[in-house]
Amino acid sequence: MIEARGLAKRYGAKTAVDGITFDVQPGKVTGFLGPNGAGKSTTMRMILGLDRPTAGSVTVNGAPYANHKAPLREVGALLEAKAFHPRRTAYNHLRALAATHSIPKARINEVIELTGLGPVARKRVGGFSMGMGQRFGIAAALLGNPQTLILDEPVNGLDPEGVQWVRHLARGLAAEGRTVFISSHLMSEMALTADHLIVIGRGRILADAPMDEVLAGSSRERTLVRTDDAEALAAALGSGSGPVEVRRPAPGRLEVLGVSARGIAEAALSRRILITELTPQQASLEDAYMDLTRGEAEYQSLTTDHRETPGHP
Ligand SMILES: Nc1ncnc2c1ncn2[C@@H]1O[C@H](COP(=O)(O)OP(=O)(O)OP(=O)(O)O)[C@@H](O)[C@H]1O
């Protein structure tokens, strides 16, 4: 269990984390999402005692990280910035880590087996591919058989088999009653892995809810429309009441949010506008995330409303 209360971090004039309060519950995979620069890594670093909060507090399994006598047995972490000696072998690294916590040698072999590192365990980590490096980082995180796992972008650089492996691993650890806290930018993967989501933007919490609720929150229906008169249809829909949004991904095409397909057809019929395609879209985590974080990104591209639509060249 991770408990953050009014947790804040400022770097000079920059507020990276702005007084956030949340719990990460055991027995679940909790996804930690947010645009670049939202404060995810800073939050994870504070949980692990690597950054000192400017205000507030955070505990893991009931105590601040630094107060745990054997922290590797409490919390296992994979962080983006790794500090491994490149000339040491994976096995020797794990052995050195294990020695600091009186972890038996048998456990080293267990985590090597579990993470599929067997063939490279005696090789220097400096020569590892990105995927092997991730597997090695996860092996180190699991070494102390900790109750809580914190994984910052664990699927970064992994091939599809590796991505699936991390998903099964995370779900298996949660099923054993452990606390699993994972950050990722891969929405489709997060949708399959997490039970609960915490979404932050500019250092503040935008959502803290079960996956189902976050998906339901994006219940604004989304429909792709092709028409000979996009201009007129957009104007007709825009004049309706409610949270309607009409995007213009390409000439002759509209992406309509907040109106049913029938509502769009009726609006078109009443104005004698020809529709050549009307395709309702399934709510995805990516849609829900985009809705939640719109305007929250620190670095925004100018083309966010021009997303490619599969099957529509
Ligand atoms: N050591 C530092 N000194 C100054 N500013 C920092 C420092 N570390 C982070 N920041 C700033 O704090 C903000 C939050 O950064 P953080 O790395 O926590 O975001 P993030 O959500 O992990 O982003 P990403 O998805 O890009 O990894 C950013 O604006 C970043 O530039």
Overview of this protein structure:
- This protein is of the alpha/beta class.
- It has two domains: 2-210, P-loop containing nucleotide triphosphate hydrolases (Rossmann fold, 3-Layer(aba) Sandwich), CATH 3.40.50; 219-291, 2-Layer Sandwich (Alpha-Beta Plaits).
- The chain contains eleven helices and 13 strands.
- The protein has helices at 40-47, 71-74, 90-100, 105-114, 130-142, 160-175, 187-193, 211-217, 230-238, 261-270, 285-293, and strands at 2-11, 14-24, 28-33, 55-60, 75-78, 148-152, 179-183, 196-201, 204-210, 222-227, 245-250, 253-257, 275-281.
- The strands form three sheets. The chain has a six-stranded mixed β-sheet with strand order 5-6-7-3-8-9, with helices on both faces. Strands 11-12-10-13 form a four-stranded antiparallel β-sheet, with helices on one face. A three-stranded antiparallel β-sheet has the order 2-1-4, covered by helices on one side.
- Helix 6 (160-175) links the parallel strand 6 (148-152) and strand 7.
- Helix 4 crosses helix 5 and helix 8 (211-217) crosses helix 11.
- It is elongated, with a radius of gyration of 23 Å.
- It starts with a strand and ends in a 20-residue tail after the last helix.
- 36% of the residues are buried.
- Mean pLDDT is 90; it is low at 302-313.
- Residues 11, 14, 16, 34, 36-42, 298 line the site of adenosine-5'-triphosphate.
- Adenosine-5'-triphosphate binds next to strand 2 and helix 1.
